[in-house]
Amino acid sequence: MSLSRFLLKRSLQGLFVIWGVVTVVFGLRFISPGDPANVLLPPDVDPEVRQQVVRELGLNQPLYIQYAEFIAGIPVGDLGLSLTTRTPVLARVLARLPATLELAIAATVVAVVIAIPLGVVSATRRHEPADYGATVFSLLGISTPNFWLGVMLIIVLAVQLNLFPTSQRPVGLDTALAQIATLQFAAGFDDLVTWAWHITLPAITLGTYFTALITRLTRSGMLDELGKSYVRASRAKGLPETLVRYKHVLRNTLIPIITVVGLQIGTLIGGAVITEAVFAWPGLGTLIIDSINARDWPVLQGSLIIVAVGFVVVNILVDALYAYVNPQVAFD
Fold first, then answer.
1. Measuring CA to CA, how many Å separate 204 from each of 11, 149, 154, 284?
2. pLDDT tens digits, residue range 208-228?
3. Domain ABC transmembrane type-1: where (predicted)?
4. Taking residues 141-159, what's their average pLDDT?
5. What's the pLDDT at 138?
6. Which of 120, 126, 291, 320 could potentially form a cystine with 296 if both were Cys, beta carbons 3.0 to 4.6 Å apart?
């Protein structure tokens, strides 16, 4: 199967997944307590006014008609209007999306940069202090709740030592890169430093579990590959140990790591809710929490749909990259 046919097949499968998510999200609104009309109206409102608002929102229509209208609006970007701000949902979600993507990618970079070298060292120095240290680090990283870690980082590094800010995101990465692209180097690099300064603690908090997971996966994969016959044959031919480890063994170890990294990026996009809440990061996680508290179902639905789309797209790209890295894997 060619790459184009593979991508087409996976895209069609992804559409069914997104349709399932949309259906579940739509159905949750009707089984959850609370009435959307109560968000817009005071408790003592006149019943006629309440009925008029219900008609304007389309809540008096049969369920299947509401569902059909909701599905029909998604392909053209019509996710409805926010109940609290009366602004388009898609615009609100897309305004928050860059912050979440920046945090997820930064957490992934932190995890990969730390975890892969640590896993290689742990595997090549088995039963040595470096291996024990990496194992303890992995156990701590997997066991530590990220909300507790975030609070501790704020207390120690932000409050006590005043090395990092406690919260917020005064400038986005896109703004800094745009200034650099327009040759405003001084302002662009200042914004880039400010962005990196503010995202460091949230990225570490979100990426710690991911770092521990990749470290353990790299270690186990390296140990498995080091015991195979092609490694012994390469050493017998006189190839340098560094070449054997990093060109052959690590390359084969990266195949499952790529899959996990891709899946975790999608998970980080939707799982940054707690981290964003701790650091007041203006991303989708904060928007989801605010929407739940305000009973703003259209915004909540739109946020979850965008997260689902991102997860599906990342999975398709990971499958394609997996087959590219490992030519033995067919596009099927």
1. 33, 9, 11, 18
2. 888 888 888 888 888 888 778
3. 97-318
4. 88
5. 86
6. 291
